[in-house]
Write a structure and sequence with these properties.
Blueprint (H helix, E strand, L loop, with lengths): L4 H5 L2 H28 L7 H13 L26 H6 L3 H14 L1 H8 L5 H13 L1 H8 L8 H13 L3 H12 L6 H13 L4 H25 L18 H10 L1 H8 L2 H11 L14 H11 L7 H5 L7 H11 L17 H17 L3 H11 L4 H11 L6 E4 L4 H4 L6 E3 H6 L15 E7 L2 H9 L12 H11 L3 E6 L2 E5 L9 E4 L11 E3 L3 E8 L12 E10 L8 E6 L2 E8 L15 E9 L7 E15 L5 E10 L4 E3 L3
Parallel strand pairs: 1-2, 1-3
Antiparallel strand pairs: 3-5, 4-5, 6-12, 7-8, 8-9, 9-12, 10-11, 10-13, 13-14, 13-15
Helix pairs in contact: 2-5, 2-7, 2-20, 5-8, 6-7, 6-9, 7-19, 9-10, 9-18, 10-12, 11-12, 11-16
């Protein structure tokens, strides 16, 4: 069959121009989605805040400094190449600068993949592979889920794979060195090149160079991390504690009890995750198993960890170290497929493979990637949510030179300052990340951005956590004590977000214990399940802050407890018979039901957004039976309650 004129005329210059145009369009779309996420406080998993602070402090001369995970980011990961981001951040100091640089780097990855594909495909077929990379759900996920420096390794390792395939040792060596500087565990992929070179029977220099470099680099990097960290160890080893307490006992378990790690490796969630990684590639990588050596050690790293595989691996930064091996294996598998009439699509060789892999990746990008869901959210909601705007305004009111502790969604908004920044979840639970070391608000924290809705997140996150479940019952009391020591008072409110300042006098309190019920309380008392009694309500005073007074619904609620072991409860506003807004903890989180003194009256105040059109308002109290943190369509980490139980009848709220 004669090659079609379109294919015959397509040259590298044409394909390169088309690929560059597609990359620019892709970058424009994903960065617009990222701007929307940032404007609406949808970066909720801490990572953008952590990296923003590290880069901001590094740009100010405190290299790799971190007060969120003190004292330095080098106690988390060894990423010397992170310093390269300080210059562009100094020019445009914003978290979105980091997001753009990450997305720009991922867009650049289409070119080394195109060049890699050209080793076995004509220009049009290689162009199809480059376009498939851009629309791949994994590339989309890396571009939109938070900010992780590990994602920069994808284009660098693809460039290394291209040099490896073309047998250009100096260029390959340079790309491997650059990759190792990104993060310590990139050495696992670099070592995979040594295994692949051995399987391909290449000269020993191809085996020794990446093999020795990775074997030397990884232990040295881990030693530096242990030195920089406060715990004296590599805290992520906590995920492998089931193997043993020390590296020696871990090795003994691996070699003397292989059935234990084999059982962990073959867990159902790991098998499903492996299938999920292969599905967008139409399982083509299985036809070139040797190239999967690049993904073998990252797979062991992930699948042997206590959490194992799952949706997080497929949709977040954890896929980064798998992608170079998967793409290389998929490209090298193309010549192994039989030719067919579909070869006309891409030339005389590999047409069927190109068509299959392109269709699979495009389908996966449209169904599994975050862009379609994010665009739907933008159309449905609009560009700016009024609640998010008010909360951002409240965060912006904190002076840049003052220290602040913030809830998850607000952490990126305040992390760029060189003053101390803390994440409130650690102050709540009283522990450092993956550690038994205690944690308290630093003395130079002058402001606290607290979100009452986040206490339900803490409930689902920590109550049954393997490391923190013993700390959770006293966590709220621990946080109250820290706020009391600093004499923190409420100075601003934006919906569920409350701004407190050290040594501030305030007439506003989130929760107060009273000797009796005030005389102006309205509504009918009601006994609720769990040993709690609802006593009544009244309209409160408007709160200071960016919420317009006409949009505020200040609600003061009165409660008591008559049980020695009351159950934690939550309530939700009912507008015209339909639930409205998020669940609110009874006691506003800082004073949960479990901490109430018996027989005393507890007063709680909440400032809701007033429904613009309504006939009847009510309040429904529930117990939360199950739920957790899930990834929303835009990959925001989002609380989702899966089951609740009503603990009383709806409580009418008249004349508010």
């Amino acid at each position: 069959m004669e090659t079609p004129s379109l294919v015959r005329k397509c040259r590298d210059s044409h394909a390169g121009f088309l690929l560059a145009g597609a990359a620019v369009l892709w970058l424009a779309v994903v960065f617009a989605a990222a701007q929307w996420k940032y404007a609406n406080l949808r970066y909720t998993a801490m990572d953008l805040g952590i990296f923003t602070q590290v880069i901001a402090r590094s740009a100010d001369g405190d290299w790799f400094g971190s007060t969120i995970h003190p004292p330095t980011y080098l106690g988390d990961h060894f990423s010397p190449a992170l310093a390269a981001l300080t210059l562009p951040y100094r020019l445009l100091p914003s978290p979105l600068t980091l997001v753009f640089l990450l997305q720009f780097s991922l867009a650049l990855g289409a070119w080394p993949l195109y060049r890699l594909s050209r080793t076995v495909l004509p220009p049009l077929g290689a162009l199809a592979a480059g376009l498939a990379y851009l629309v791949s759900p994994f590339t989309q996920n890396l571009a939109l889920f938070e900010f992780h420096f590990i994602a920069f390794s994808v284009p660098v390792l693809l460039a290394a794979a291209n040099s490896f395939a073309r047998k250009k040792l100096p260029a390959f060596s340079g790309w491997c060195l650059a990759a190792l500087l990104i993060r310590e565990d990139v050495a696992l992929v670099v070592f995979g090149f040594a295994i692949l070179a051995l399987l391909q029977r290449r000269p020993w220099r191809w085996v020794l160079l990446p093999g020795v470099a990775s074997v030397v680099w990884l232990p040295a990097a881990l030693a530096l991390i242990r030195t920089a960290g406060v715990s004296g160890g590599y805290k992520f080893f906590a995920y492998y504690a089931w193997l043993g307490d020390t590296p020696r006992t871990m090795l003994q378990t691996i070699f003397l009890q292989p059935w234990r790690w084999l059982a962990m490796l073959l867990r159902p969630q790991n098998v499903i995750t492996a299938a999920g990684l292969l599905l967008p590639f139409a399982f083509l990588p299985l036809l070139s198993p040797a190239a999967l050596a690049l993904a073998a050690l990252p797979a062991l790293q992930m699948f042997l960890g206590a959490p194992g595989g799952g949706d997080l691996v497929l949709r977040t930064q954890y896929s980064a170290l798998f992608l170079p091996g998967l793409w290389l294996a998929a490209i090298l598998a193309i010549p192994r497929l039989p030719d067919s009439k579909l070869a006309a699509v891409a030339g005389r060789q590999g047409g069927l493979a190109v068509a299959v892999i392109t269709a699979a990746v495009v389908y996966g990008g449209l169904t599994l990637g975050p862009l379609p869901g994010t665009l739907k959210m933008i159309v449905r909601q609009g560009w700016q949510n009024e609640s998010a705007l008010a909360r951002r305004t409240l965060a912006a009111a904190v002076p840049q030179a003052r220290g602040v502790a913030a809830a998850y969604p607000l952490l990126p908004q305040v992390a760029g300052r060189t003053a101390t920044v803390a994440s409130l979840n650690y102050a709540f639970i009283g522990r450092q990340q993956l550690s038994t070391l205690s944690y308290a608000l630093p003395n130079d924290i002058d402001f606290v951005l607290l979100d009452t809705e986040e206490f339900l997140t803490y409930h689902l996150q920590y109550r049954a956590h393997g490391l923190y479940h013993n700390d959770y019952p006293t966590a709220a009391a621990n946080l109250r004590a820290q706020l009391a020591v600093g004499n923190f008072g409420v100075i601003g409110v934006a919906g569920s977000t409350v701004l407190l300042e050290r040594n501030a006098s305030s007439t506003i309190a989130l929760a107060t214990v009273l000797p009796g019920t005030p005389a102006d309380v309205r509504g009918d008392p009601q006994d609720l399940d769990g040993g709690v009694r609802f006593l009544g309500y009244r309209a409160g005073a408007p709160a200071p802050g960016p919420m317009p007074r006409e949009r505020q619904l200040p609600l003061v609620l009165y409660w008591s407890v008559n049980s020695a072991q009351p159950a934690p409860l939550y309530w939700q506003l009912i507008s015209d018979g339909k639930p409205r807004g998020a669940l609110q903890p009874v006691g506003n989180g800082v004073l949960p039901v479990t901490d109430w003194p018996q027989s005393a009256v507890v007063e709680t105040t909440t400032w809701l957004w007033r429904p613009q059109t309504t006939e009847k308002l009510a309040l429904q109290v529930v117990a939360v039976d199950s739920g957790g943190l899930f990834l929303a369509p835009d990959l925001a980490s989002e609380l989702r309650v899966t089951k609740t139980t009503r603990v009383g009848e709806p409580i009418p709220l008249d004349d508010l």
